[in-house]
Amino acid sequence: MSTTRTKLHDMVQNIWWSWNPVALDLFEELNPAVFHASGNNPVIALREAKGIVLNDPDFSKRVDAAYDAFQAYMATPLNAEYPKMAYFCMEYGLHESLSLYSGGLGILAGDHCKAASDLRLPFTAIGLFLREGYFKQSFTNDGWQEHQYPVVNPADMPVSLVKDDSGAPVIVTVQVGDRPLNLQAWEMKIGHTVMYLLDSDLESNPEYLRALTHRLYSGGSDTRIMQEIVLGIGGIRLLRTLGIEVETYHMNEGHCSFLTLELLNEALQNGLSMEEAEAAVRSKTVFTTHTPVEAGHDRFDPSLTLYMLRTVRESLGLSERDFLGLGRVDASDPYALFNMTILGFRFSRKQNGVSALNGELSRRMFKDMWQVEDAAKVPITHVTNGIHLGTWAARPAQEFLSKHLGDWQNRAADPGLWAAIDQIPDELLWKYRSSLRKRLVEFIQQRAPQQTIPMEPNFDPDVLTIGFSRRFATYKRATLLFMNEERLLEIFRKTDRPIQVVYAGKAHPQDEGGKQLIQRVFWYTQHTELRGKVVLMENYNMEIGRYLVSGADIWLNNPRRPMEASGTSGQKVAIHGGLNLSILDGWWPEGYKGNNGWAIGTDASADIKDPKIQDPEDANFLYDTLENEVIPAFYNRDNNGIPTAWVARMREAMKTLVYQFSAERQVRDYIEHIYKV
Ligand SMILES: *Cc1c(COP(=O)(O)O)cnc(C)c1O
Q: What is the number of domains present in the chain?
């Protein structure tokens, strides 16, 4: 028993378990009630393990097997030909029990860390130790979103405090305005990837600064800029203190761009001239932008910037004007805000957007900065996002694929592997789809009554199921389906060809527009004709996400083009035989081939239209496509009850989308085109 326990202790400290069901299942079995009550937390389940389970010989055997698999994964060395990377991001979505993320950016970063580990890329990730993370969502009687911030205890997380050789916590210091701020760091292992999370909650700090790193995207711009000083400048100082060798720094979105100022400072201290120092910084960093609209970029008031970064500016020996110029397109414009994206662009050797369309849009948006007329001359390229299949493939999907495709996890980016989907008979594919839908329906039936405002879903495992879940940012238009209520009700009234729709998602606590969208969806769940058929799930997280993307037949995605930089939730459905019904925005123009899902509209340009025109146009296209294509394809069955046209599309989706939009392909692209010098 003691070795079983030791092995579990070893395993729990590396979140390899987060994408390996063989391990995660064991932690759940240790104490299922505690595991579920804690939000699927393996650390807590292990602490509360039942002796009877630990003593069970069969259980021990399975622990041995999982442990061997873990050891084998960790035994293969890092690839010495790859550059040593440090990756900076404000948020990381790694597992539902780790509240370090709010949405797509975090999920993308988490998947990137895991794929980097799978590829044996030397990779260190830097983030913030968000003890209160994002927020827990609930609804009032009237569907208004409310927020709670449960505080996590570090002892409940798979992290350890970073200490020096004498056993004392490692502390780095940054200056915010007039004050020094001390930071400690927590280490988390993600397979081969090591992550450091900076934490300002120390007694040596002034009371009001202790909570600085507690919450994601809360507070005003003074909190935000201080968090970004911690992430960028504190992150570099931590890497130096720990003696971690880095060849290239990847700034994932502008929140971490201050790291370039610290690198610049180091270069100047080493005796380089300003010009040489700038070139030296540029040679070591790359920058990824995810934000397709001007207003979305992280920007700070000039006086706030000067105040908070005074000591940094002074040690760089820059005038106020020259310093602010680093974050301005036009360095001589005294009114322009300090833009973190501009800072990142200025000091990076490579810049990229996260889909072809997003790259094009970014080139247009930033041509002033490169002082060219022709957007095509702007050097911003793109690497389209992908998803970590081990994380997002549902357990039954992993089993199905292993049975039919063999060792798929290690060959996921190989199109040849997925061509073998053609060998699977229609009946089996349809059975696969139906079983995953049934699993989702059961999950909804079980969860909905437990919500603060209980839902009474009347879902049927054989009915066409539409899923929509993501952040409720207004541009994502969560209520587009309801835009023309009469047309929608007509669709619902066709009882011989029924549909059911499930929604989930959080709005930013300060986004009134987003909260209003949630409320409208909530109201529709109460509509006499839609009750039970339209459901809104509470407290969207990675677990709910996994059920939805694996169970939905149709994944609805209707952002206002071209606002969706990439979007990744739709990429998660293909491996489950789900089909996208999506605006041609973000990744979908690259994924859509005419027969592997559906497009809403025909335009895939980066042009911006007046929402008053675009919204009703898109809504009508959506109704037409549902009525004329999606619903008939689902319900037209052959003699064996198989919807052959539907299954043909499923097949195409699985063959064409999974490998292309995998995080493995994505990180390989980064290595080849962005990271390698
Ligand atoms: C995949 C995912 C997202 C991203 O969804 P988009 O459609 O790309 O916005 C956000 N949140 C969670 C929990 C996810 O799993």
A: 3
| CA distance linking residue 651 with residue 648, whole number of Å | 5
Last residue in a domain, options 75, 100, 135:
75
- Residue 51 and residue 109 share a domain: no
Nearest Cα residue to atom 3 of ligand 1: 104
CA of 182 to the centre of ligand 1 (A): 33
Q: What percent of the chain has pLDDT over 70?
A: 100
CATH code of the domain covering residue 353 = 3.40.50.2000
Q: How far is the CA of 105 from the centre of ligand 1 (A)?
A: 8
- Full domain range(s) for residue 529: 392-661
Whether residue 381 sits in one domain with residue 397:
no
- Tell me the residue type at 89: C
DSSP state of 546: H
| pTM of structure | 0.98
- According to DSSP, the β-strands at 179-190 and 160-161 are antiparallel
Assign 3-class secondary structure to 304-326: HHHHHCHHHHHHHCCCHHHHHHC
Q: What is the pLDDT of residues 545-586, one digit of tens each?
A: 999 999 999 999 999 999 999 999 999 999 999 999 999 999
For atom 4 of ligand 1, the residue with the nearest CA is 104
Q: Mean pLDDT for each consecutive 10-residue tract of the chain (677 residues)? A: 88 98 96 97 98 96 98 97 98 97 97 98 98 95 96 97 97 97 98 98 96 94 97 98 98 98 98 98 98 87 98 98 96 94 98 97 94 96 98 96 93 93 98 98 96 95 98 97 98 97 97 97 97 98 98 98 96 98 98 98 88 96 98 98 98 98 97 96
Cα-to-centroid distance, 114 and ligand 1 (Å): 16
pLDDT at 607: 85
Q: Check whether residue 305 and residue 449 sit in a common domain.
A: no
| Residue whose structure tokens are 């130096």 | 240
Specify whether 276 is located in the same domain as 398.
no
Looking at 44, 75, 106, the residue that finishes a domain is: 75
Number of residues assigned to the chain: 677
C-alpha distances in angstroms, 601 versus 491, 581, 582, 589? 19, 10, 9, 11
Q: Is the CB of 562 under 6 A from ligand 1?
A: no
Buried b (16+ CB within 10 A) or exposed e, 545-576: bbbbbbbbbbbbbbbbbbbbbbbbbbbbbbbb
Residue 46, pLDDT score:
98
| DSSP track, 606-671 | -----HHHHHHHHHHHHHHHIIIIIHHHHH---TTS--HHHHHHHHHHHHHHTTTTBHHHHHHHII
Helices 259-269 and 274-284 pack at an angle, to 10 degrees, of 130
Task: Answer for the pair 22, 66: CB distance below 8 angstroms, yes or no.
Answer: yes
User: For residue 569, what are the CA distances in angstroms to 75, 83, 291, 515?
Assistant: 32, 30, 17, 21
Name the phi and psi angles at 166, rounded to 5. -85, 0
The answer on 286 and 414 residing in a single domain is no
Which of 105, 470, 587 to probe ligand 1 with, by most ligand atoms within 8 A of CB? 470
Residues 102, 36 share a domain? no
Per DSSP, which regions of 52-133 are E strands?
85-88, 123-128
